[in-house]
Amino acid sequence: MSGDGSAAAAPIRVAVAGAAGRMGMAVCEAVELDDGMVVVGRADPALSTAVADVLADADVLVDFTQPDSALPNAREAVAAGVHVVIGTTGFELSELAGLSGANMLVAPNFSIGAVLMMRFATEAAALMQSAEIVELHHDKKLDAPSGTAARTAELMKESSGREVPIHSVRLPGLVAHQEVILGGTGETLTIRHDTLDRASFMPGVLLAIRRVGDLPSSPVVGLENLL
Q1: Of 138, 141, 157, 167, which one is the catalytic site residue?
Q2: Sign of the C-alpha dihedral, residues 199, 200, 201, 207?
Q3: CB 130 within 8 A of CB 185
Q4: Looking at domain 12-108+200-226, what is its CATH homologous superfamily?
Q5: Looking at the domain covering 112-196, what would its CATH class be?
Q6: What's this model's pTM, rounded to 2 decimal places?
Q7: Closest Cα partner for 213 from 9, 64, 54?
Q8: Which residues have a Cβ under 8 Å from the Cβ of 105 and sit 6 or more positions away?
Q9: Which position among 137, 140, 167, 177 bears the catalytic label?
Q10: CB atoms < 10 A from the CB of 20, how many?
């Protein structure tokens, strides 16, 4: 109870799908360190727990799994009235259309810097003659091109009317990196974002957890819609 007699807000109850993966573990740690949230369930085959096992006590499900499981996870959560924050990429976002019962936010990238990179590239594409995207990720990443690169190309096409080629690199030692190279008469412009640690995604994930329940429509694609 606070000093003015008002009750403290109840913490947001968060379940994490893919909780044993690198991103899932980082999300669990970030939620546990936030005073306004609590982890109430961890779903992962490595933990012998399914999404159905963790929804009963959850307000929000955060999904960092695989492309073939993110969609059924979202359907199951929404049907249970649980909001969903999806960081998994590589599936057709159109498959989420029409799902009702709770809100969904899908973000190809939760890094604030990456969101800014996409915005700057979108603005530049309208003014430069041509552009290409080079995205570089660790060798365990399953989808290519990355969701961030695909989203960047989509936004750049909307502003310029041109298709933007994407080149994908998968190598050990990398985390997540993207260059947008734009060319004009006698000049080039390079916009680059580098993720050096997965901790960079956590402020965006926590923001999405706080805001997904208040979205005016669903699904919403892109963290930029919350900034």
Answers
A1: 141
A2: positive
A3: no
A4: NAD(P)-binding Rossmann-like Domain (3.40.50.720)
A5: alpha beta
A6: 0.84
A7: 9
A8: 84, 85, 86, 208, 211, 212, 215, 218, 219, 220, 221, 223, 225, 226
A9: 137
A10: 15
- Decide if 137 is catalytic: yes
Count of alpha carbons within 13 Å of 77, Cβ hemisphere only?
Answer: 32
Any idea how long the chain is? 227
pLDDT in tens, 150-203: 999 999 999 999 999 999 999 999 999 999 999 999 999 999 999 988 899 999
Give the pLDDT score at 97. 87
Residue indicated by tokens 């695989």: 66
> Which residues have C-beta within 8 Å of that of residue 178, sequence separation ≥ 6?
114, 117, 133, 134, 135, 136, 146, 148, 149, 152, 192, 193
Domain residue spans of the chain: 12-108+200-226, 112-196
Strands of 176-184's sheet in order across = 166-170, 130-137, 176-184, 187-195
210 vs 224: CA distance, rounded Å: 15
* Nearest alpha carbon to residue 102 among 216, 221, 213, 15: 213
Q: Give residue 178's identity as a one-letter amino acid code.
A: Q
